[in-house]
Amino acid sequence: MADDDKTYQASPGSDPRTAPMAVRGPSAPGAVTPPSGGPVRTVPVAVPGPRPPGAPKPPGGPVAGAPKPAGPPATPPARPVPPVQAKAPPPSNTPPPARPPAAPPPQAKAPAAPASPRNDVLSPLPEKALGEFKELETLAKASSLDLDPELEKAVGFTHFDTSASEDNLITVLTTRKDMHQLASQTLVRVKSREDKRSYLGVVVRGPFSEPDAIAANSTMAVGVVVQGKKMSYTFDYHGRADIEILGEEVGGALSAPKLRPRPKSPVFVLDEQESARVLGLKGSMCIGMVAGHERMEARLDPRDKSILPRHTGIIGTTGGGKSTTVATLIHHAQAAGIATIVFDVEGEYTHVDQPTDHAAMLAALARRGQKAEGVKDLHIHHLTGRDSRNPRHKNLHRFSLNFSSLSPYAISEILGMSEAQQERFHKAYDVTKLLLEDFKIFPRNEEEHQQMLDVDELSTGYPRMTLQHILDVVNTYLYTLSDEGKSESKSRSKSPSRRRGAAEEDPESEEGADSEGGDAPPRGPQLKSEFRGNPGRVLGRVMAQSSKNEISWKALMGKLQNLRRLKIFDVDTAPGVDHGAMLEPGRVSVIDLSDTDSPQLNNLVIADILRGLQETQEARYQAANAQGKSITPVLIVLEEAHEFLSASRISQMPVLFEQVAKIAKRGRKRWLGLVFVTQLPQHLPNEVLGLLNNFIIHKITDSSVISRMQKTAGSIDESLWNRVSRLAPGQALVSFSNFTRPLMVAVDPAPVKRLLVD
Ligand SMILES: Nc1ncnc2c1ncn2[C@@H]1O[C@H](COP(=O)(O)OP(=O)(O)OP(=O)(O)O)[C@@H](O)[C@H]1O
Ligand SMILES: [Mg+2]
């Protein structure tokens, strides 16, 4: 066959019933060859108008060889039939644009003889041609009887395997006409009819266009493309796509495939409804639209224990859309009755109870048919002595931290104590505990005694211990190591302590002012807590556990004073955070950390509030379980998570990390979901990334970060990762534990107002 014919060759797999009808006649260059399996005949091609002689007619038009109907036919043909070209002209270099020829359906009737005077110019259909039409009709009918009606809906067929075939991947060939149906990420069903098995799969590569009967890299194929300006001629081609097998359909469920679909198994595209079902997209929370589908929404069930409580990472470079996604998530979580707590390092979520006024967001909302609206129940919490970005909000809560809730191990980590300082700190801590009992501060009764035994100092502090208590004890140690202290202790048996002690080491010490002006300076360590009522007792306890190395004690004192200077612990006028209130259904609590400008301080706050939330939720969970009730789900969002959980920080602060890991592990059962947001996932150690089961991955440009994430979120295939560096703002690769496979999603714009970050 001449090369020219290729343009009109029916692609493999095309439906013979829709292929061009063959009409006996003189074979000529530019003639149409019917599909394989059909009668091998050629059709002279009609060339309309200014087409150069010999140029084949563009496909899709009517069948050549049939006369034009004269006037309205008694039984009109499915398509008009053009006049017959008497003689096929010589071949030309300017063939028509490549499109497969569409032909009238087999039922097309031969046109009737002219009935209208308007058509007098045309000669009536010759008897011979009429006879051929009849014959064709019979042939078409016969071949359509042979065709399995099921195959009519097939969009392609599985190809034979080669030595390059990979497990779980299968190549599907399709016609040029159908290849658009095998768009990337399309879900398909492969019916391996030969062995009566059915598989579900997804297009992961392609669809590629391959020329029929010639290699794409052949000189001819390359030539016609290179000469695209001069030549309209091209080879006919078919589509090829690689399909990843998701599983074999057995009894309505998907099971791991043991075999592969046989060659030439028909492939069918699932409709959107079935695709959504197969992908596991169900639930009241919609986070956006699945790319490549008209109306498929990426949905999840906020009340499904196996989704949000299994923790989520929102990852991507600056401007990728992370915060918008968080804002959208907050809005949906609030609507779903989830208690949402956001650690807001920049204060950007302090206005989420107002509708967005961001022009681009309003436009995006309008496109999605959604409206701007704020969340209903917003509360803003900020540290005492620090400002909020929404200082006039009606639900503004100032809070201080309770020293008693911080693990001594976490404190020593946060303050970066040396080993010598740590040792002294823990010694002072133990002496303080004894003094709390001596001074009947804690425990006061049998119940509290039991509570004391239960304290886990790796995760929490000692009940009712304040920073001032421990400062008093450290002060006393310093006093005992000072010259005055040493002589004092020698004469202690003779007289009570008299000298002012190491409190003088504290440049900010408020008691310095108190003590000045007196004729006789007070003796013994200057104490400020309840311990001041009996300094002798404190001195006694300290001396019973004596210690050396004044320098380490001084350094420790310096660090604890730094902590005190933050003025965030045990402030009488600012209560601690009300964790119970934060866990109320549908409440959004934003912890505004915008004014702290100290990652160390942020870490203190985050660690303390996380622990409080976890304990409160744990108690609620136990109570709800005992009563057979359900518990309010909680979502905790941590912006700039790398600041809190970076690898270097975790190596410095293993106890803090252990606390987070514990919350993450327990949270799974207690309806407590964590959301870590970061543009620097490479700073998060594997231990942290390993806590995450869900990912919303916005644009990432750094290939080393992509490959790191590839290892972390292993279920995401290569074809999706390839797109991550080119994602537009708001687009994300989303992998949730309820999704059968990860999806490309256009995340919904945020209807709430978000403040800009400098
Ligand atoms: N889902 C979305 N729909 C429409 N526009 C979006 C969406 N997400 C992001 N954008 C656009 O991209 C901009 C940047 O988004 P966003 O601030 O959420 O990024 P980010 O990843 O949080 O950046 P940064 O790392 O700087 O905090 C938005 O102001 C908005 O214009
Ligand atoms: Mg952001």
Topology:
Blueprint: H1 127-146, E1 156-158, E2 169-174, E3 187-192, E4 197-211, H2 219-226, E5 237-250, E6 253-255, E7 266-269, H3 272-279, E8 285-290, E9 297-300, E10 312-315, H4 322-335, E11 339-344, H5 359-367, E12 377-383, E13 396-399, H6 408-414, H7 419-438, H8 446-454, H9 467-481, H10 483-491, H11 511-515, H12 535-544, H13 550-565, H14 579-582, E14 587-592, H15 599-626, E15 634-638, H16 641-645, H17 647-652, H18 654-670, E16 672-678, H19 686-689, E17 694-697, H20 703-712, H21 718-724, E18 731-735, E19 743-747
Adenosine-5'-triphosphate binds near residues 320, 323, 729 and 757.
Q: How would you describe what is shown here?
A:
The radius of gyration is 39 Å and the shape is elongated. The protein has helices at 127-146, 219-226, 272-279, 322-335, 359-367, 408-414, 419-438, 446-454, 467-481, 483-491, 511-515, 535-544, 550-565, 579-582, 599-626, 641-645, 647-652, 654-670, 686-689, 703-712, 718-724; strands at residues 156-158, 169-174, 187-192, 197-211, 237-250, 253-255, 266-269, 285-290, 297-300, 312-315, 339-344, 377-383, 396-399, 587-592, 634-638, 672-678, 694-697, 731-735, 743-747. It has 4 domains: 1-147, no CATH class; 151-279, Elongation Factor Tu (Ef-tu), domain 3 (Beta Barrel), CATH 2.40.30; 309-401 and 575-747, P-loop containing nucleotide triphosphate hydrolases (Rossmann fold, 3-Layer(aba) Sandwich); 405-565, no CATH class. The relative contact order is 0.11. The two termini are 68 Å apart. Mean pLDDT is 78; it is low at 1-122 and 496-522. With 758 residues, it is of the alpha/beta class. Helix 7 (419-438) crosses helix 12 (535-544) and helix 9 (467-481) packs across helix 12 (535-544). The strands form 2 sheets. A 12-stranded mixed beta sheet has the order 9-8-19-18-17-10-16-15-11-14-12-13. The protein contains 21 helices and 19 strands. The site of magnesium ion (MG) has 2 residues, from helix 4. Magnesium ion binds at residues 322-323.
